[in-house]
Design brief:
Blueprint: H1 2-21, H2 27-40, E1 52-54, E2 59-61, H3 63-80, E3 89-93, H4 98-111, E4 116-123, H5 127-144, E5 148-152, H6 153-157, H7 161-167, H8 172-190, E6 195-197, H9 202-215, H10 218-221, E7 227-228, E8 237-239, H11 247-256, H12 273-287, H13 291-311, E9 320-321, E10 328-329, H14 335-344
Parallel strand pairs: 3-4, 3-6, 4-5, 6-8
Antiparallel strand pairs: 1-2, 7-8, 9-10
Helix pairs in contact: 3-4, 3-11, 4-11, 9-12, 9-13
The structure holds adenosine monophosphate, FE2/S2 (inorganic) cluster and zinc ion (2 copies).
């Protein structure tokens, strides 16, 4: 039942995508377009009925070929950015959202014979949102039979995100992001993982780049790479295997593989400017398919290198170790220890 509902909403979504293709054409051209569309709506690989049109790639795919295409794209991204070597232990951060669920499924397919994989979910203590996310995580881990761990921030540090947000005057997502990054890193150190994989998508990366271009935040831009290698003994390397894949593609991957994901949004994310930016970026992609990929690739291949050679000796020069936890910081106490002190005071 649930599956057919998913498929129904997916079919509706695909119709919408097709409709958008003709949005700017007049009626005659539209009719011509419809005829062509009927002719063209075949999978570019096998000629059976196409299920999705990927304008940026100029292809249409049936369900089976979309699955293969998605897996191949993730595998290619891993190779291109030299994210994973054989036998490395990979810790996969899973929030329960469509992106990290799709990543977990795809990485299991790609790496099951060559790497040790471990899935981790952080229980943030955000009411129903956290309860449901944890259930979804447990369910997928038992379905795909992957070793896994749930870490509750309340049990580990004595406070939930709800409590931290009440005490600290900072955007909730930035408090939450800081805590999640620390927990993922601490757990990766504990289990001797070589890499931490997160489900940041192309849309996430491009949104982050746009926001930081606007703010001229070079320091943040220099910290953003699809593969951030280990630069300190306490900081585990981070990889983003979905960095060239859009939000819509991860959603479609979940739906056609019948993977459940959390559909209610985080209550703190609803007013976030990031969501508004994401919408604007989607409009840019509509006007010029391929914009998001160009932005990301040009940043990593050209702009990042230019910034690095020009600025890397000028920004964040002073690297100390936090007097409490030993993590790298530009001050005496790291941002995480300062936050913990404030919340628990
Ligand atoms: P977000 O910062 O919420 O956009 O999440 C980005 C990525 O961080 C996700 O795709 C996950 O890989 C990871 N992540 C976010 N929340 C959690 C969580 N509660 N537990 C484990 N990993 C998470
Ligand atoms: Fe962290 Fe919403 S998931 S604030
Ligand atoms: Zn096909
Ligand atoms: Zn510290």
């Amino acid at each position: 039942m649930l599956y057919s509902l998913c498929l129904m909403s997916l079919d509706m979504m695909i119709l919408l995508i097709f409709a958008l293709e003709y949005k700017y054409q007049d009626r005659t051209r539209l009719r011509k377009g419809e005829k062509q569309m009927r002719k063209k709506s075949k999978c570019s690989m096998c000629k059976s009925k196409a299920f999705i049109s990927l304008k940026y790639a100029g292809i249409r795919l049936c369900k089976e070929h979309f699955k293969t295409y998605f897996i191949n794209r993730v595998a290619k991204t891993i190779k291109k950015y030299q994210m994973i070597k054989h036998n490395e232990k990979i810790l996969i951060g899973v929030s329960g959202g469509k992106d990290s669920i799709a990543m977990l499924h795809a990485l299991t397919e790609i790496l099951k014979d060559t790497n040790e994989l471990m899935a981790v979910h952080i229980d943030l203590g955000i009411n129903e949102y956290s309860t449901k996310s944890r259930e979804i995580f447990n369910q997928i881990c038992s379905t795909i039979k992957i070793e896994n761990k749930v870490i509750s921030i309340k049990e580990k540090y004595g406070f939930t995100i709800n409590e931290a947000v009440r005490k600290i005057r900072r955007p909730p997502c930035s408090i939450c992001g800081l805590i999640k990054r620390r927990i993922l890193n601490e757990y990766a150190l504990e289990i001797n993982a070589d890499k931490i994989a997160t489900g940041h998508t192309l849309d996430d990366e491009v949104t982050f780049l746009m926001l930081n271009y606007i703010n001229g935040n070079i320091n943040m831009l220099l910290k953003r790479k699809p593969h951030l290698p280990k630069i300190h003994e306490k900081l585990i390397a981070r990889i983003k295997p979905l960095c060239e894949i859009s939000d819509l593609e991860t959603q479609i991957y979940c739906l056609i593989n019948n993977l459940k994901y959390i559909e209610i949004p985080c209550p703190y994310a609803q007013d976030s400017p990031i969501l508004k930016f994401k919408k604007i970026i989607m409009q840019l992609e509509e006007i010029r398919p391929g914009t998001k990929l160009s932005l990301l690739r040009n940043f990593t291949n050209k702009i990042y290198k230019a910034l690095e050679s020009h600025y890397s000796d000028k920004v964040d020069q002073k690297i100390n170790e936090c007097i409490k936890c030993g993590y790298p910081t530009s001050q005496d106490l790291c941002a995480f220890c300062r936050l913990k002190e404030k919340v628990l005071s």
